[in-house]
Write a structure and sequence with these properties.
Layout: H1 3-17, H2 21-40, E1 53-56, H3 58-61, H4 67-79, E2 89-91, H5 118-127, E3 131-137, H6 154-164, E4 168-172, H7 181-193, E5 200-203, H8 215-218, E6 221-223, H9 232-243, E7 254-256, H10 269-281, E8 286-288, H11 297-303, H12 306-312, E9 321-326, E10 329-335, E11 341-347, E12 354-359, H13 360-363, E13 370-375, E14 380-381, E15 386-387, E16 389-394, E17 398-406
Parallel strand pairs: 1-2, 1-8, 2-3, 3-4, 4-5, 5-6, 6-7
Antiparallel strand pairs: 9-10, 10-11, 11-17, 12-16, 13-14, 13-15, 13-17
The protein binds beta-D-galactopyranose.
Residues 58, 93-94, 142-144, 172, 174, 204, 206, 227 line the site of beta-D-galactopyranose.
Length: 408
């Protein structure tokens, strides 16, 4: 029996015992309508219980993509061990289709780059135990203007995607004729619901109309920012913009500060560790954006850090917040299941090392609680146990990340 049903039963029994059948039906009505509200506020495709993990072509390849890259990427995601760590979606971004639909109104995979078609690619990706994602736009053309968008063709395209075996749709916002995303996106939501296949729906309107406020009814994730670039400033500013909406993330619907740049070469190792740590603790989609066929050992160490991935995939699904900011120093924290807490000590400055202290009162741990601290990048449980606070010295443009577990 589900928890809410148990609660209804308890309330109904309590009301009956106290002799009031009408109070019982009143209690039931209240609880059931809360349940209805909850259901109505989540997209009913059952996907995204934890943030999605996978790869997307855009950050590294832009428009220069073809079916060979997609197939080889699927191979590499399996052979490197990334698939075992939970990376499952192989997502094709913009530029996969011909500029014109066929005479039946179908989107047509670009003959020169995707000659075997998308269905064959989906079959291949599925045969490796992975899932295939695709991209379209809630406008007349996609952002590259190199292929059509789905505005006015939502039902048709959703059916096409389902018939190809697509598992994830990223839906962009360019060339939309000036109407609001809150008008255009629901049409694709409904179309996907009717398409006969569960398809993760990723809203990409760049945070323009505060999609955190309405996205959970329409999709499984929503971009909160415009595009990331492979630089420290771009990365931390996306993290900041996304953090504001922390309260809106929950299982089934996630804030999306854009895809990962780890491995694309524009940041230092420590900066990429900060990038991956913030995305993980923020319950952001972990969509790799580098060429996984040719990545370095260092890149694999970062995106393959299972302990950090576990924070991202924790079933509680609560996005961390900045709980203290002082000059260059920031502390991010969020609860995990089993009374654990994830903490990130971040030095945003570019020159000095600082000791950074997280106080229990800031990070939501009862004052006298003794905890064990696991350093997620050193892969070590610290010998000392902590009560009241934890301190570490952090290099410029670097961070320390811990999971704190109460000691019984
Ligand atoms: C942007 C989107 C990017 C990428 C690009 C493709 O609007 O934010 O992530 O999809 O379009 O043209």
């Amino acid at each position: 029996m589900g928890k809410s049903k148990e609660l209804v039963l308890v309330l109904v029994l309590a009301a009956l015992v106290s002799g009031s059948a009408s109070a019982a039906s009143e209690s039931r009505r209240v609880i059931e309508s809360e349940g209805d509200v909850y259901r109505r506020n989540l997209l009913a495709n059952g996907l995204g219980n934890t943030p999605p993990m996978g790869w997307n072509s855009w950050n590294h390849f832009n428009c220069i993509i073809d079916e060979k890259i997609i197939r080889e990427t699927a191979d590499a995601v399996v052979s490197t061990g990334l698939a075992k760590l939970g990376y499952e979606y192989i997502n094709i971004d913009d530029c996969w289709a011909e500029i014109s639909r066929d005479d039946k109104g179908n989107l047509v995979p670009k003959k020169s780059t995707f000659p075997s078609g998308i269905k064959a690619l989906a079959d291949y990706v599925h045969s490796k135990g992975l899932k295939l994602g695709i991209y379209s736009d809630a406008g007349y053309f996609t952002c590259s203007k190199k292929m059509p968008g789905s505005l006015g063709h939502e039902e048709h395209d959703a059916k096409t995607f389902a018939s190809w075996g697509i598992d994830y749709l990223k839906y962009d916002n360019c060339n939309n004729g000036g109407s609001k995303p809150t008008v255009r996106y629901p049409v694709m939501t409904r179309a996907l619901m009717n398409a006969g296949r569960p398809i993760f729906f990723s809203l990409c309107e760049w945070g323009d109309l505060h999609p955190a406020l309405w996205g959970a009814k329409l999709g499984n994730s929503w971009r909160t920012t415009n595009d990331i670039a492979d630089t420290w400033d771009s990365m931390v500013s996306r993290a900041d913009m996304n953090e504001v909406y922390a309260d809106y993330a929950k299982p089934g619907g996630w804030n999306d500060p854009d895809m990962l740049e780890v491995g694309n070469g524009g940041m230092t190792k420590n900066e990429y560790i900060v990038h991956f740590s913030i995305w993980a603790i923020s319950k952001a989609p972990l969509l790799i954006g580098c060429d996984v066929r040719n990545m370095t050992k260092e890149t694999m160490e970062i995106i393959g850090n299972k302990e950090v991935i576990d924070v991202n995939q924790d079933p509680l699904g609560v996005q961390a917040k900045k709980v203290r900011m002082e000059g260059d120093i920031e502390i991010w924290a969020g609860p995990l299941s089993d009374y654990k807490t994830a903490v990130l000590l971040l030095n945003r400055g570019s020159s000095s090392r600082y000791p950074i202290t997280a106080l229990w009162e800031d990070i939501g741990i009862p004052p006298k609680t003794v905890v064990e601290a696991r350093d997620l990048w050193e892969h070590k449980t610290l010998i000392t146990q902590f009560v009241g606070n934890i301190t570490a010295t952090v290099d410029p443009h670097a961070s320390k990340m811990y999971v704190l577990t109460p000691v019984a």
